[in-house]
Structures are given as C-alpha cells and as structure tokens.
Amino acid sequence: MRFLLPFAAWFLIGFVGIVAMATQIGLDDLRAVEGAPEIGDMGLRIVLVIQPAILLAIAVAAGVALQDRAGLASWLTARLRGERVPLVSVQSVGGALALTAALALVALFVDLVFRLAAPADFAGLPGAPLATLPRVSALLYGGITEELMLRYGLMTALAAIGTMLFVRKEGRRRPALMWTVVILVALAFGVGHLPALAAMVEPSGLLVVRTVLLNAMLGILYGWLYWRYGLEHAILSHGFTHGVFWLAGPFMAALAGAV
C-alpha cells in the first residue's frame, strides 16, 4: 500500500487534468495534421487521453517509488502511507505565493519586451482564453498534470539517479546536483511548450527563445519549491501563476498594443 494508494490517488488527480484538456482541443485542427487517424470524434478524444495518461502513469510511478531515494517529498504521499506529517505551514505557502506572483509579473514584463521588439512575430499568436472552461482546463492540466509529469516524475527520477551516482553519504554534492536537476527539468518544461506554439503559429526563432525562456524561468521556481518544500508547493505555485497571468496578462497585452 505504500506504493499503490499514493500512486492511484495522484494518477486520478492528474487524469482529471488530461480529460479536461482533451475536451478543449479542436478536432478539426487535429484532423488537419498529416497522419491524423481517420476515426470518429469519440475515438479521437480517447486517443487524446490515452497517450498522456500513459506518460502520467509512468511519471507518478517514478515519483512515488523514487521520492525517498531522491530526498524529495509529497505531503499527500506521506499521509496516504500512514506517516504523521504536519500540514504545510501558512508561512511557507505565503512565501511561495509571493515568489510566484513576483516571478509571474517578471515573466509578463519579459514577454512585453519580446512583443515590443518584434511585434510582427506575435501577430498570428492568439491571446489567452477568456472563457471559464478553457481556463479551468488549463489550470487543471498545467497546474497539476504537468507538475506530476515533470516535477514528480522526471525531476524525482533524475534526482534519485544523480544521488545514487554522485552524492556521498555526507551529501556535500547534493545542492549542486539538485540545482542541475531543477534547471534541466525546467528547460525540458520550456521545450515541452514548443509543440503547442507550433500548433498555433509558424514560430520564429524569437518566439522559440521567448517560449522556452519564460517557461524555464517559472519551471526553476516550481522545481525549487518541490525540492525545498514538497510537491504540493510546486503544484500550488504553478496554478497560482495561471491566476496572475489571467489578472495581469490583459493589462500587459493592452500596454504592448498601446506602445
């Protein structure tokens, strides 16, 4: 039960995000892609769910199985294993949210600089969705499912392997290892957003750099929070980032258009 119960809980939580996102993908656009399967709408929706569900299962399995070896933690996993762990502190949550808000605003400012430097590159890029359902879907998939895949899965696996190979018992090399892992996973997080960018617009080199840079910046924060405070802090921070973007993003976009 040390593995099965937390695995099932985290997988089901992340699976909600997969289903929510799959309902928002336009099937007509997907069918326009070369090599898309010629099946009905329901079959295509199922295909959209199966692949990320497999990746999610692998990531959650790695996280649950390797988090102790990696020196990382999840409050929910610990509680489901019967461990008596205290609730996260209000101070750590408040600090995480403050850091998130600050870095999200910095990311919006950097995005504004990119837009002012090359406005033509952003001409075909659609704005953020204003409807509630797409926003909720993005929050569930981005804030939870992506964190389970990238931080709980990939980051935990790399940290566990690195710890076994490079960290001595006294742990002197651990900070260097963890920062390396945090940055590598953050870069993977940034690169992972490029297919979505390519689906919306023909990306220029500047758009590619901007997309990887902004997501990697935020990914470093999420990874650091996971390392220092636990997985739930990373999830909370990622979800809160969406909220900051929803509130401040339209203002920054309007400012870009007015300059």
Structure description:
With 259 residues, the chain is mostly helical. The chain is 78% helix and 0% strand. The chain has ten helices and no strands. It has helices spanning 4-22, 27-31, 41-70, 75-80, 90-117, 132-166, 174-191, 194-200, 205-229, 231-258. Helix 1 (4-22) packs across helix 6 and helix 5 runs antiparallel to helix 9 (205-229). The radius of gyration is 19 Å and the shape is globular.
Structural key phrases:
single chain, 259 residues, mainly alpha, 10 helices, 78% helix, globular
Number of helices: 10
What series of H and E elements makes up the topology? HHHHHHHHHH
Mean pLDDT, all residues: 88
Biggest β-sheet: count, sense, barrel?
Answer: none
Give the number of DSSP strands. Answer: 0
Distance between the termini: 58 Å
**Class by alpha and beta content:** mainly alpha
Question: Strand content of the residues, in percent?
Answer: under 5%
Compute the CA-based radius of gyration: 19 Å
Weakly predicted, low-confidence segments: none
Helix content: over 70%
The 3D shape can be described as: globular
List the helices and strands and how they pair.
Blueprint: H1 4-22, H2 27-31, H3 41-70, H4 75-80, H5 90-117, H6 132-166, H7 174-191, H8 194-200, H9 205-229, H10 231-258
Helix pairs in contact: 1-3, 1-6, 3-6, 5-9, 5-10, 6-7, 6-10, 7-9, 9-10
